[in-house]
Amino acid sequence: MSESLVISGGMLAGHAGGQPLDLMIVDGVIAEIGPQGSLAGGGQVVDATDALVMPGFVDIQVHFRTPGGEDSEDIASGAAGAALGGVTACVMMPNTIPTIDNPTLVKEVLAVGRTSHCDIYTSAAITQARAGERLVDFDSLYAAGVRIFTDDGTVVDDAGLMREALLASARLPGCVISQHAEESGMVDGGVINEGVVSARLGLKGRPREAEAVIVDRDIQLAAETNGRYHVLHMSTSLAADLVREAKASGIRVTAEVTPQHLILTEEDVERLGTSGKMNPPLRTDTDVEALRACIFDGTVDAIATDHAPHSRESKDVSLSAAPPGMLGVETMASVIWTEFVAAGLMTLDRFVALLSTQPANVAGLVSQGQQLEVGKTANIAVFDPQDEWTPDQSSLQSKSANNPWIGKRLVGRVRHTICRGQLVVADRALL
Q: Which of 71, 306, 384, 392 is catalytic?
């Protein structure tokens, strides 16, 4: 039995009235909500004065590198950073060494995750070893708890395999087929976005059209099969237009976008160096504007980080040789708050929807992203909207340093995090 907690004096997201409230947590569940001071003596006090109390954030695309890449990140370090960022649930990607493509590995990863600072879920590959040749055993992986299937890092180029995968999702409740959407032949050897910067640097580019080719094909397959299709880290206006049209037609498609694709462009690559390299790459101003529109018109369902750690040694090379990927799980909420909410562009309700409620719905995480009500599981972030801070390498938990937000002045920071009713971060420090 866990110690009771009283979150005291915060403004509860989604609750009318505009007055500070207290929230009591008993045995991992919200037991009572009352006026400020009314629950005094009910448990350990968690001070939420001048802060917002909201559902814990949910990041449905992280790379915690377990198994096989623990030198750059592991579940413990990744989950610690997530918790400090108010994230109470993460979905790991399967492009590990070996690939997460069988129930044994799924169970091993989930077992490690049960000792971490936030809830850890894992996706599994669509094809065995992500080789694009033979499908995984969807039924056994589904029985092991997998709901998201993806060959993330590579695309399933074979339309026949993708069709069979989507058929599997149509018969398995809550199953989602997620795609890294870049047609392989079009981006082979590409380093950054194909455009003015790649030309200036003399680098082969990854064309925007490569994303649209795959998204268009997969939407057609989803329509035919009634499968569930999710676009990972959507990066272009071309793909956004296709997703918007598909949703209007009733096709079962969802999409996510990363903070970096909402803020940074190909012009930032020269400033950031290899920390500015990712796949799909940072795009154009036009794409950023289009994606920003998507987070308000419903085309985008979730903001996810694609948190992709790489060791200093692997990134300390040329742009062409460096692996793609950026960090982001610990800073996600602060970056989005700074760029959108503090700037007056986004409401608190939309912030909660994009970072918590909707990503939880995409991944089928029923105990996450819930309205803060009596009887609900206590997965909670207490967020101070006025706390100004500047991330630096020494203050962040990741084993890696490829973070594009180092040195950026941010407004808003998580003060406390409660996961499954347990206080895991108190006053911005891990417990």
A: 306
